[in-house]
Amino acid sequence: KKYEARNILSDLFINRTIPEKQKEIKDQLDKLNEEIIFSPLPSPDAIMYTVQPGDVLARIAKRYNTTYELIMKMNGKIPNRLNIGDQLKILTGKTKILVSKQDFTLLLLLNDKYVKQYRVATGKNNKTPVGTFEVKNKMKEPVWYSPDGGVFPYGHKENILGTRWIGFKDKPNLYGYGIHGTTQPETIGMVASNGCIRMLNSEVEELYDFVTSDTEIIIQE
């Protein structure tokens, strides 16, 4: 009953029901999700899809509101090597992101259940806004448009964005915010950015594959 156990532990973790056991519960959740989420094994969070003639990963991903990168990663596939009759595990449901400024954590949820928690950096001088945000765009190897006016391509020593960018839709007086990687991994767990949420590159790459256009991002104090 691993799935049921995961769901019970997820609720305990999210609601901080047993605060002194948070780390122990998180460790158990991560262990359970290695199979439930991060493996090709069937689970109630997913469907098993049989590859049909003419199938393309990007189209399959769009049909099930997921990303082709996530399907590839979960099933150990490369885009041009689909075989008719292959079974693909495809996660279904809605993803959500919860950021805690106080704890420097980002929690990824699927159908409101725990998938993974990551450490983050937030904005200096309380610049990270609180509230609910929508996804505007996603970019690999992003260009950085510095608030001071410079434009720095990916790989430039002045580009601090790391390997991924997940941009938020603008709100009144709130524009240019997002979640991104970093060239300064030592700042994770600190107030260090201009207001964006910073993550380790390897972790933002994992998160990026889960995020779709309807992923809700909630930032809390």
Structure report:
- The chain is of the alpha+beta class and 221 residues long.
- The protein is 24% helix and 29% strand.
- It has five helices and 14 strands.
- It has helices at 2-14, 22-36, 57-63, 68-75, 201-210, and strands at residues 46-50, 87-91, 95-100, 105-110, 113-119, 122-123, 131-140, 144-145, 151-152, 164-168, 178-180, 191-193, 197-198, 216-220.
- The protein has an eight-stranded mixed beta sheet with strand order 5-4-3-14-7-10-11-13, sandwiched between helices.
- Helix 1 packs antiparallel against helix 2 (22-36).
- The longest helix is centred in the N-terminal third of the chain and has 15 residues, at 22-36.
- The two termini are 35 Å apart.
Blueprint of the fold:
Blueprint: H1 2-14, H2 22-36, E1 46-50, H3 57-63, H4 68-75, E2 87-91, E3 95-100, E4 105-110, E5 113-119, E6 122-123, E7 131-140, E8 144-145, E9 151-152, E10 164-168, E11 178-180, E12 191-193, E13 197-198, H5 201-210, E14 216-220
Parallel strand pairs: 3-14, 6-12, 11-13
Antiparallel strand pairs: 1-2, 3-4, 4-5, 7-10, 7-14, 8-9, 10-11
Helix pairs in contact: 1-2
